[in-house]
């Protein structure tokens, strides 16, 4: 399938006879507050599972460590979903001619979309749901759980890395590595033994993830 640069997409209405019969309308992007709300909801879901763990421990029931492992999966998937959302938001900001401060950059120019993408979006260029769906279909199979993957997406939308961003490399990669061990190896080591996990481990990852997300979100808001 042919691929084209997203930079070739024009959201302005088509001109006929030198006049605009349908003056372009402002594209209504996904709201940053909604992106933040969904991330906060995900964090609350993880937090609520600690209550379940407390109940199990009080009743001497098994399964506490498995819930901790599930929380690790939820935390990393929350980051992944958040970066997908921020990527879509940033790309729409760049292609919207009414938005200033979000400029085309070299990484943006390398972003490829299909001709079907261009066709569907051009036909519905004032419908943000269509635009976001097409962007989602383009990036949905990409994973943004590793630090470098997150960093690359911020480069794509031209976001300058906030101060302190690099300090989270170890913890973000550590969360991803633990998630992979749980998802692909049942959290077992090379000998087949399960790796220990406790509430402190989960809470430490959770708090650092929330700090990392806040750092990115504030940078996006202030761009």
Summary tags:
3% strand; single chain; mainly alpha; two-stranded antiparallel ribbon; 8 helices; 223 residues; 61% helix
* Number of alpha- plus pi-helical segments: 8
Query: Please, what is the average pLDDT?
Result: 87
Strand content: under 5%
Q: Rg to the nearest angstrom?
A: 21 Å
Low-confidence stretches: 11-21
- End-to-end separation in angstroms reads 35 Å
**Backbone shape:** elongated
Largest sheet properties: 2 strands, antiparallel
Secondary structure category: mainly alpha
Approximate helicity band: 55-70%
User: Would you count the extended β strands for me?
Assistant: 2
Order of helices and strands: EHHHEHHHHH
Strand adjacency order, main sheet: 1-2
In short:
The protein has 8 helices and 2 strands. It has a two-stranded antiparallel sheet. By secondary structure, the protein is mostly helical.
Structure description:
By secondary structure, the protein is mostly helical. It is 61% helix and 3% strand. It has a two-stranded antiparallel ribbon with strand order 1-2.
